[in-house]
Amino acid sequence: MSEPLTEELLDELRSSPSATAYLESHETSTRTLATYLCELLDAHGLKRKDVVREAGIDTTYGYQLFTGARKNPSRDKTLALAFALGCSLRETDRLLQAAGASRLYVKERRDAIIVFCLDHHTPLAKVNETLYRMGENTLG
């Protein structure tokens, strides 16, 4: 799932003779949440039922997210899925974007804690414990 960095794409766009030429040579469509969730499952070698359980999401609701029947989970549910999937910070931000939620912002106290936990591969239960202990809302 190696994708070019935004900076690399920006350089290509700037050096392109026209916006049309750039767009013709690059896929710019936004992937759906369901598509990206399935890509992450494959990339991490996980099973949907295990991820849904680990994220603490109702089985039916989780199935709807993975099949596209349900499109926009809350930001916290999306973050819980990211932890259950073992996502990196980049994957988490892309997952949030696919879910229509705001990216993590380290200037926000709660987001900084979440980013730290992502970088340290903290299990979701420990993430919630850390958030609670630091006076922040848990992920669910």
What does this structure look like?
The chain has 140 residues and is mostly helical. It has one domain (30-133). The protein has helices at residues 6-15, 19-25, 33-44, 48-55, 59-67, 75-85, 89-98, 109-119, 124-133. It is globular and about 55 Å long. The chain starts with 5 loop residues before the first helix and ends in a 7-residue tail after the last helix. The model has no long low-confidence stretch (mean pLDDT 90).
User: pLDDT average, as an integer?
Assistant: 90
What's the order of the H and E elements? Answer: HHHHHHHHH
Q: Number of domains in the coordinates?
A: 1
Portion of residues in beta strands equals under 5%
Described by strand count, sense and barrel closure, the largest sheet is: none
Strand count: 0
Structural class: mainly alpha
Q: Please, how many helices? A: 9
How do the helices and strands line up, and which of them pair or pack?
Elements (H helix, E strand, L loop, with lengths): L5 H10 L3 H7 L7 H12 L3 H8 L3 H9 L7 H11 L3 H10 L10 H11 L4 H10 L7
What is this structure, in a nutshell?
The chain has helices spanning 6-15, 19-25, 33-44, 48-55, 59-67, 75-85, 89-98, 109-119, 124-133.
Question: Which key features would you list for this structure?
Answer:
single chain; 140 residues; mainly alpha; 9 helices; 0% strand; globular
